[in-house]
Each structure stands twice: as C-alpha cells, then as structure tokens.
C-alpha cells in the first residue's frame, strides 16, 4: 500500500537491532484517516472471506482493528488482553507469547464468550516480525474452534521469518507494507 509505505519513509525511524519506530502515526499517535484507508484495503484483500469477527492484541492492534471493522460490516472487534485483571470473568482462552519489541514473554487472554466455534476470524496487527504474537492468536482461535480466514498486517519485516512461516502453513496473510531491508545508519528502508 503506497500510502503506508510513503508514510513509513517520511515518519519512520530505523533503530539498531531491527527496530522500526512508527509511533508518530501507528502505535502511539494514531493517524485515523490512514487507519481507515488501511481498513478499506484489507476489506478489498479479504473480500471473498466470510469474516464475522476481527481479533487483535492489545494495545497497538486495537485502533487498526476498530477502524477496519466498519469495512467488514461492523464485525465485532475482540482483543486479546496481555494480563489477567479483575475485569476478566468467566472462562477464558489463554496462551503465552514472546514480544520482539518488549523482549519478554507474557500471557494473552480472550474471554470464551467473545470467540467461539463457527466464528470466521480476521486477525489484524500492526507488526509482523517473527510471528510469535500471531501464533498465540491462532492458537486461541484453534482452542475456540474458530476459523482463521486471514491475517492482515500493517508492517511486515520480510527479512524476519514470521510471514514466510505462516504463508507456508497455508494462511492467507496480507501485509500492507513489506520491508525487505532497513539500515539504522542511513535510515534507508526498502520495500518488497
């Protein structure tokens, strides 16, 4: 998606260790017009899928998923929580995932009443690097008996293995910006 790639070139900051900082528009401050255009593009890319739920993970995926929802007939957005709280009641699906950016493991939890057998799920997230978060969300869908119809990613680090592994397993994965290389010294970013 050229609009997203252009925005990454303009406002993205490449840092050491394979980190791309896009907090000016994607995961700290949110450009809702861009999010809306991204949602429309995912709707085009997944037009043939019978999606009735959108699943993401807190916190950065929530804004994207909510804006995308209106392009999928206002499908309910369910987000996996990263910590147990007194607000989580009833039975739950849970798994543990490793965060590339936070460099630690944490639990992810979805209440069973929000995801069930017969649901056709689109998983959306802001980044895909090694795929650990997505693997956790897929595991939760499998536990619920829900069908993963597709995976939509804002920015994929194509030089890391997560996207290729998921595609090899047969998942319909669409990344709106797929980075093949980035250089923290020059700030140069190359897209597929």
UniProtKB/TrEMBL annotation:
Q: Which InterPro entries match?
A: PRTase-like (IPR029057), PRTase_dom (IPR000836), Pur/Pyrimidine_PRTase (IPR050118), Xanthine_PRibTrfase (IPR010079)
Pathway as given in its UniProt record: Purine metabolism; XMP biosynthesis via salvage pathway; XMP from xanthine: step 1/1
Q: Where does 5-phospho-alpha-D-ribose 1-diphosphate bind?
A: 129-133
Q: What class of enzyme is it?
A: transferase
Q: GO MF terms on file?
A: xanthine phosphoribosyltransferase activity
Any single GO BP term = purine ribonucleoside salvage
Give the record's keywords alphabetically. Cytoplasm, Glycosyltransferase, Purine salvage, Transferase
Task: Please list the residues that bind xanthine.
Answer: 20, 27, 157
Family in the record: Belongs to the purine/pyrimidine phosphoribosyltransferase family. Xpt subfamily.
| Self-association and partners | Homodimer.
Q: What is this protein called?
A: Xanthine phosphoribosyltransferase
Query: What organism is recorded for this protein?
Result: Collinsella tanakaei YIT 12063
Q: Which gene encodes it?
A: xpt
